[in-house]
Predict the structure.
Amino acid sequence: MTAIRPLVAGNWKMNGLHASLAELDAMRARALAAPPACDLAICPPATLISAAAAILAPAIAVGGQDCSELPPGAHTGDLAAQQLRDAGATFVILGHSERRADHRETDALVLAKARAASAAGLAPIVCVGETRAEREAGRALAVVGAQVAASLAADLDAATLVVAYEPVWAIGTGLTPTVADVAQMHVHIRAGLVEIFGAKGAGVRILYGGSVKPQNARELLGAAEVGGALVGGASLKAADFMAIAAAYS
Ligand code: PEP
């Protein structure tokens, strides 16, 4: 089987104004001058998607950070998957732990959003991950396995699907799991994917996310079954983001 091409994706969260687009210019320049051996994507806030797509194409893809599970219609404040696609996005992050916590998003809702995203031609990046309490209780594998089973389904397109393992306690904290723990979880997620998708589950990219920095990227991304990174804080600066991507060189 051909090796999976890794993906390094940046999640800008609720950060970024038009003044921040200069960082995207710098990212594109670096990606063209020294292309890493991975795909690249930046998921800016929705207000910047069109501008980001115009700057980054074709070197770096653009993604949204959420979409509605519903088709376009009377839903004030929401964004349909078709609208993200129309703005230039090709990926969309779904079920990030901040959305699961802040907006009480359930696995069932994340699955509905993933179906809407796929139908609109977006590649869903579905996030899963345990809390600190769940890890300390020895329940990390069970919790993440259940999230995978309930947030994904066989009718999704395995060829475009991406899964991101993001331990909640590692996001924005500077803490990371051991490489052995990352590998154990990614192997566990892979088994869950094969259960859902059969042989196609072996080709789904599984990203690690949670305090990935230039200093730890090579080690974390070298763990078994890690097919790239979902990067929060360190994706705001071109130098840091591209240094992480350079782990694949
Ligand atoms: C994230 O929120 O997706 C994330 C990985 O954040 P950070 O890299 O800042 O921990």
